[in-house]
Amino acid sequence: MNPSRLLLCLLTAAAFLAAAPASVAASSSIVECGQVVAYTAPDPGTPTDGSLTLGQLDPWVIAATATVSASAAAVLPAFAGGGPSCLSMDLDDSGVITALDFASEGTLTGPVVADSGLGGVIFDDRILVPSFITDAYPGLAAIFVTSAATHTNVTATFMVDTSTGQFTGFHAEAAFCGAGDLAGNGDGLVGAAVIPAAVLDAGDSATLAHANLEQVCADITAVGSIDNSGLTIDTHVELAAIPNTATDAEQVAKPSRTGDALGLTLALLLLLVFRAAFALDAHGSRRQEP
Description:
alpha+beta; disordered C terminus; 5-stranded mixed β-barrel; 9-stranded antiparallel beta sheet; disordered N terminus; CATH 2.40.50; about 40% strand; elongated
């Protein structure tokens, strides 16, 4: 190719890339779940960017020209400041939302922190689970309150009605270990966690009653459904006692103080007998005094 024609082609391509709209730039798609704290709709006519805040996270900017689904546009203005939901977002390379809709499901994994000011626990900086809810539903307390006490993570998947943004169900898992015991009221104790008696079966209670403060690990799964009649939760608890075999072996191998004293006495007697026998061999018999 003629060098001048090659240069012209390169310049044309460069000009085309420079003029390409921002939407052509690399982007990503994510699903985020959380309490919808604030929402401002974008306005392409002005144009004015919008914003979205979930839980305690930093707000996202919604581009003025973003595509917002009909259901999200209708529901989110009144939804803000209310319950949680999961949202599907397309982001440009600057992290600005270019498309927004409700997601059919989303998963969170993170810590649970007690917040006395808000009166409950906060999951992954995004969702508030109020104390009056965990008090009413032991299956939720067995997941979230226990994990807050033991400083361990929870993994939860939420199902969403994409026409309303409301949760329709969830699947949550928690796991933690600690000294095991059974409280007088039937609650299970695993380290700092209190597992409500209502979610323990007879086998779980027996395991904890015989744990004698030895290490116990708990795996808890809660599956819930939410409809007009309320919340239904099925909770399953798996407990495994871990005997402290290292301590037991040490106790077996370690002699008692009585054994030590008896062994020392026998050793002294044998030493005296040996010394007496050695003296007789060296000098024959004892010399009689005149």
